[in-house]
Amino acid sequence: MQGKKETFGGMVKRLRLEEAKIGLRAFAELIDMKPSNLSNIELNKIAPPANRKTIDLICDVLGLAKNSNRRPKLFDLAAKGQKGRIPADVAEAIREKPGVPVLVRTVANRQLSEKKLKELTEYIKKYY
To answer: Domain holding 34: CATH number?
Structure first.
């Protein structure tokens, strides 16, 4: 985006119109949401959904592949701006995988730089 930070609503609207080519009312019906609520989310007038099921459904209807880098971006954007809110997919991983809290605490306690975090992420992607 040019000069503006992308928002959840803005990204959903852009993908809905440009890639999925679905009208607002049809899309709202497919994701089981009132058209007025979808419109307000896209216009950043109300907060994005907080639960994983709804965001996953939005991603599926938009045609985003499970391994698409745009899926986690939507989760991150949904949580952004909501003070203290953790992206729904991350919160679920923390709840369901006992090792994740240990990993997060270890990373936090080591106070890794952004560069080191990226290196760790790439290592995990490559070897696991």
So the answer is: 1.10.260.40
Specify the number of domains making up the chain: 2
Q: Which tens digit of pLDDT belongs to each residue from 65-104? A: 999 999 999 999 999 978 889 999 999 999 999 999 999 9
- Domain contains 1: no
Specify if 20 maps to a domain: yes
Report the distance separating Cα 1 and Cα 6, nearest Å. Answer: 6
Per the domain annotation, does 2 fall within a domain? no
Residues 73 and 104 in one domain: no
pLDDT digits (tens, 9 = 90+) for 8-23: 999 999 999 999 999 9
Predicted TM-score of the model (pTM): 0.81
Q: Count CA within 13 A, CB hemisphere, residue 31.
A: 29
- Burial degree of 78 (CB within 10 A; 0-12, 13-18, 19+): buried
Q: At 37, list the tokens.
A: 């609520």
